[in-house]
Design a protein that fits this description.
- The protein has about 210 residues and is an alpha/beta fold.
- It is about 40% helix and about 15% strand.
- It contains eight helices and nine strands.
- The protein has helices at about 25-35, 45-60, 70-80, 95-100, 115-120, 135-145, 165-170, 190-205; strands at about 10-15, 35-40, 65, 85, 105, 110, 125-130, 155, 175.
- Helix 1 links the parallel strand 1 (about 10-15) and strand 2.
- Helix 1 runs parallel beside helix 8, helix 6 (about 135-145) runs parallel beside helix 7 (about 165-170) and helix 7 (about 165-170) crosses helix 8 (about 190-205).
- The termini are far apart.
Length: about 210
């Protein structure tokens, strides 16, 4: 099966620290709010169990996968768990190539034009600008002029409702949302409310 990120709401829910016993309840709150891209970083408790549970419950409605993926072996383990998304903090060409060969979406972390082009050459599905707070949105405008026009670009790090519009105007496709959406132990009701607010803020920013 080949997974794709196209056609989805371009917001990635980053669930760092998600506990497997809460995975389905958290996933339900996110999917109900409109999120259909969900990432469980591999430095979470038993992440493969959480990912497998999310895939079983929501795999027909959402793209489920992992973040902080650093090795080809981790890519293979994710493929076996049914994941469709591999997100990394860096642009390791071997990890990108293995992800593409397994039919999964690859979003490697990049910051410079050299890293961006190297990631795309290795087969990345899109680019994760990380950490986004280190650069200005104007830099995205500049690189958009030379990148393949259809390249999805997700800004991750320091993103909130107040600055989404500036990043979108600069040419970003979407965002990864972590701490403002999920923290271990956060009540499900609060996750649901924050998820709805983030989706609404994104849609309003995109409509400007």
């Amino acid at each position: 099966m080949t997974h794709t990120i196209e056609g989805r709401l371009p917001l990635v829910a980053i669930l760092r620290g998600l506990e497997p016993e809460r995975a389905v309840a958290v996933g339900a709150a996110l999917v109900e709010a409109g999120f259909d891209i969900i990432e469980v970083p591999l430095n979470s408790p038993d992440p493969l169990a959480s990912i497998a549970a999310l895939v079983e419950a929501f795999g027909d409605r959402a793209l489920i996968g992992a973040g902080t993926v650093l090795t080809e072996a981790e890519v293979d383990a994710l493929a076996e768990a049914g994941a469709g998304l591999v997100v990394s903090p860096n642009g390791n060409p071997a990890v990108i190539r293995r992800t593409a060969s397994r039919g999964m979406v690859s979003l490697p972390g990049v910051l410079t034009p050299t890293e961006m082009f190297a990631a795309l050459e290795a087969g990345a599905s899109g680019l994760k600008i990380f950490p986004a707070e280190m650069i200005a949105p104007a830099i995205i405008t500049a690189v958009r002029a030379v990148l393949p026009p259809a390249t999805p670009i997700y800004a991750v790090g320091g993103i909130n409702a107040g600055n989404m519009a500036d990043w979108l105007a600069a040419g970003v496709t979407g965002f990864g949302i972590g701490g403002s959406l999920f923290k271990p132990g956060k009540p499900i009701g609060e996750i649901a409310a924050d998820a709805c607010a983030i989706v609404s803020a994104f849609k309003a920013a995109r409509a400007r």
